Amino acid sequence: MFNIGDAVVCIDASDIPSPPWKPLKCGGMYTIRSIDIITELDGNYDKNIHKKARFVVRLWGITNPMHPVYGKELGYADSRFEKIQPNVQSIRVKDKIAI
Questions:
Q1: Residue 86 counted as domain residue
Q2: Is 50 within 8 Å of 79 (Cβ atoms)?
Q3: Which domain holds residue 18?
Q4: In sequence order, which residues have a C-beta less than 8 Å from that of residue 59 and are 6 or more positions away?
Q5: pLDDT per residue as tens digits for the range 8-31
Q6: How far apart are CA 77 and CA 91, in angstroms?
Q7: Closest-CA residue to 31 (of 2, 8, 1)
Q8: Can you give the pTM of this predicted structure?
Q9: Is 62 exposed, middle or buried (0-12, 13-18, 19+ CB in 10 A)?
Q10: What's the CA angle centered on 70, arms 66 and 72, to 5 degrees?
Q11: Is 67 a domain residue?
């Protein structure tokens, strides 16, 4: 699950109908701007590879048009992205600076 502000990398930019969606770049890094749960009213995700997507995400720097029926900005299936994990290295006891 993603949170607003998470850094993500696009792992699948295929089959995005452009227009109306703005294209994504596979390997491109993005930041999550908003998240909505996918409901039965939110579209036809059951007909493509992203049928198991549970959320729609919107990204900073990309603004898609509003859906004419649902009145929400078009988003991307969360399954198109992976969260970027920070490279955290733990400090070992012997690496600590003695005071």
A1: yes
A2: yes
A3: 7-95
A4: 30, 31, 32, 33, 76
A5: 999 999 888 888 899 999 999 999
A6: 37
A7: 8
A8: 0.76
A9: middle
A10: 40
A11: yes
